[in-house]
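EI: anyone free to look at a 270-residue chain?
SC: sure, send it
EI:
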Amino acid sequence: MEQVRDTKESRIVLKDLTKTYGGRNTEVPAVDHVSLEVQSGEFVALIGPSGCGKSTILNMIAGLMPRSGGEILIDGNPVVTGRLTPKVGYVFQRDTVYPWRTVTRNIGLGLELNGVAKRERQVEIARFIERAGLKGFEHAFPITLSGGMRQRVSLMRTLIMRPEILLMDEPFGALDTHTKLEMHSLLLEIWNEEQQTVVFVTHDLGEALTLSDKIIVLSARPGRLKQVFNVPFARPRDAVSLRETPEFSELFSQIWHSLGEEFRRTSAEG
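SC: here you go
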């Protein structure tokens, strides 16, 4: 089993992480002894076949789901299931905007709950609305927005809380290609400024290559750490032109070969 290590400061550490669903007679192993480290300011993508435990790993890191074995550390402290971990933000697979709140009130929800003064909230919200390209839609309700615009609202609502660690579970998976590329450009721009530590779950290899510093390939279920690929493309990156380079195509082919082996395993076992 390959283990990811680096000389930089580690913010997230998984040690022999396992997860099994079901009872004693119906156990289904989902994650099998995954060990890895995510360094400070690193953008790491988890990729693999459906059902390989990508989202399960993310939910265990977030403390949303109990693990069956192993250890999860954030900044050296054990993650406790059901307890919020400071400095960690989570962007879900589906947009989680509240239909009864406007764009402004959705984005400012966390600040409001934290008791931030109204004037200070307004200044911050206006800044994040402009950053997300939502100016003019401040008082719009989600039902009037496109899917991409709703996902921008979800992303800004998380980022306005200034998380140092960002966990993202296929946040752009339901978007069309053009909108997805727009979201990639927005996320790259924000990450270049903020340098959060990111763990990003995706099925889209092109997306993983566009965004990340490192791609971790998981095996077919139960998910094991199969292979790690460093992404050497210089930053800042252009989400569109990067895909036209021969370097992108070459690395895509290498990783696709590794993924293809797992896709075939999944088909054979199905």
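EI: The first strand starts at residue 10 and ends at 21.
SC: 👍
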